[in-house]
């Protein structure tokens, strides 16, 4: 049996401005970079104030 793929037809209005995907991706990357930078700054602040306590939180107990 042959199967046929049915694709919806797009309206050819053409009135819409083409969206520059590169610009959108760049904006998303910039926003993500800012988020990562803020998290790293927060970690730096914690490490400057109490690095020993921060590291102890990751040490496994019982020799595991």
Automatic annotation (TrEMBL):
<comment type="subunit">
    <text>Strongly interacts with the proteasome-associated ATPase ARC through a hydrophobic interface; the interacting region of Pup lies in its C-terminal half. There is one Pup binding site per ARC hexamer ring.</text>
</comment>
<feature type="region of interest" description="ARC ATPase binding">
    <location>
        <begin position="21"/>
        <end position="58"/>
    </location>
</feature>
<dbReference type="GO" id="GO:0019941">
    <property type="term" value="P:modification-dependent protein catabolic process"/>
</dbReference>
<feature type="cross-link" description="Isoglutamyl lysine isopeptide (Gln-Lys) (interchain with K-? in acceptor proteins)">
    <location>
        <position position="64"/>
    </location>
</feature>
<dbReference type="InterPro" id="IPR008515">
    <property type="entry name" value="Ubiquitin-like_Pup"/>
</dbReference>
<dbReference type="Pfam" id="PF05639">
    <property type="entry name" value="Pup"/>
</dbReference>
<comment type="pathway">
    <text>Protein degradation; proteasomal Pup-dependent pathway.</text>
</comment>
<dbReference type="GO" id="GO:0070490">
    <property type="term" value="P:protein pupylation"/>
</dbReference>
<feature type="modified residue" description="Deamidated glutamine">
    <location>
        <position position="64"/>
    </location>
</feature>
<dbReference type="GO" id="GO:0070628">
    <property type="term" value="F:proteasome binding"/>
</dbReference>
<dbReference type="GO" id="GO:0031386">
    <property type="term" value="F:protein tag activity"/>
</dbReference>
<keyword id="KW-0833">Ubl conjugation pathway</keyword>
<protein>
    <recommendedName>
        <fullName>Prokaryotic ubiquitin-like protein Pup</fullName>
    </recommendedName>
</protein>
<keyword id="KW-1017">Isopeptide bond</keyword>
<dbReference type="GO" id="GO:0010498">
    <property type="term" value="P:proteasomal protein catabolic process"/>
</dbReference>
<comment type="similarity">
    <text>Belongs to the prokaryotic ubiquitin-like protein family.</text>
</comment>
<feature type="compositionally biased region" description="Basic and acidic residues">
    <location>
        <begin position="1"/>
        <end position="13"/>
    </location>
</feature>
<feature type="region of interest" description="Disordered">
    <location>
        <begin position="1"/>
        <end position="37"/>
    </location>
</feature>
<comment type="function">
    <text>Protein modifier that is covalently attached to lysine residues of substrate proteins, thereby targeting them for proteasomal degradation. The tagging system is termed pupylation.</text>
</comment>
């Amino acid at each position: 049996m042959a199967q046929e793929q049915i694709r919806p037809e797009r309206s050819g209005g053409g009135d819409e401005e083409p969206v520059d995907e590169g610009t959108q991706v760049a904006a998303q990357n910039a926003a993500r970079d800012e988020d990562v930078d803020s998290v790293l700054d927060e970690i730096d602040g914690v490490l400057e104030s109490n690095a020993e306590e921060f590291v102890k939180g990751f040490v496994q107990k019982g020799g595991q």
